[in-house]
């Protein structure tokens, strides 16, 4: 009985029983897609055209929207990459649906070496279901191991 009481006190102190102090619950997500579209370009590696100013650079280790209308509906909440236990690269992207309707999008990944040469074929398009004002997760693993240094996730509307 004493153990249960001590555990209850610890849970309350940690904010697990009844929620944490000051946390807002049951709120609908609010998105500022215009702010996201106006954000500064990433200062890291990018794919660039051989002819200067022939195209906008495509940031690597990022999500590239291939559908302009989608930039008003979806935000990238998080983008993560890690080495797996077999030393492949696993990319995970969490998307937020900023609309009041369920969305279906498609994502695919490209993996590249240190010189930005593809290490394998681009993955197949994977469908991601995102509920209204909810989140959806995309995950892909490379086939290559040590040679993979960069990745690119492309996002488009599902047909």
Write structural notes for this entry.
It is built from 2 helices and 9 strands, in the order H-H-E-E-E-E-E-E-E-E-E. The protein has helices at residues 2-14, 33-37, and strands at 46-47, 58-59, 62-65, 74-83, 89-97, 103-112, 126-130, 135-141, 150-157. It has a 4-stranded mixed sheet, with no helix packed on it. Strands 4-5-8 form a 3-stranded antiparallel sheet, with no helix packed on it. Strands 1-2 form a two-stranded antiparallel sheet. Strand 4 and strand 5 form a beta hairpin. The protein starts with a helix and ends with a strand. Residues 1-14 have low confidence and may be disordered.
Brief rundown of the structure:
The protein is mainly β. The protein has helices at 2-14, 33-37, and strands spanning 46-47, 58-59, 62-65, 74-83, 89-97, 103-112, 126-130, 135-141, 150-157.
What labels describe this entry?
single chain, mainly beta, YcfL-like_sf, signal, four-stranded mixed sheet, DUF3426 domain-containing protein, three-stranded antiparallel sheet, 2 helices
């Amino acid at each position: 009985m004493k153990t249960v009481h001590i555990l209850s006190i610890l849970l309350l102190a940690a904010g697990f029983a009844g929620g944490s102090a000051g946390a807002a619950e049951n709120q609908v997500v609010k998105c500022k897609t215009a702010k996201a579209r106006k954000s500064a370009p990433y200062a890291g590696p990018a794919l660039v055209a051989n002819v200067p100013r022939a195209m906008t650079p495509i940031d690597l280790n990022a999500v590239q929207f291939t559908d302009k209308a989608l930039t008003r509906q979806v935000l990238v909440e998080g983008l993560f990459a890690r080495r797996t236990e077999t030393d492949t690269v696993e990319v995970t992207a969490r998307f937020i649906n900023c609309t009041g309707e369920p969305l279906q999008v498609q994502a695919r990944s490209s993996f590249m070496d240190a010189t930005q040469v593809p290490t394998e074929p681009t993955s197949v398009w994977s469908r991601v279901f995102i509920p209204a004002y909810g989140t959806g997760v995309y995950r892909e693993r490379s086939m290559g191991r040590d040679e993979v240094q960069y990745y690119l996730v492309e996002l488009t509307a599902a047909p």
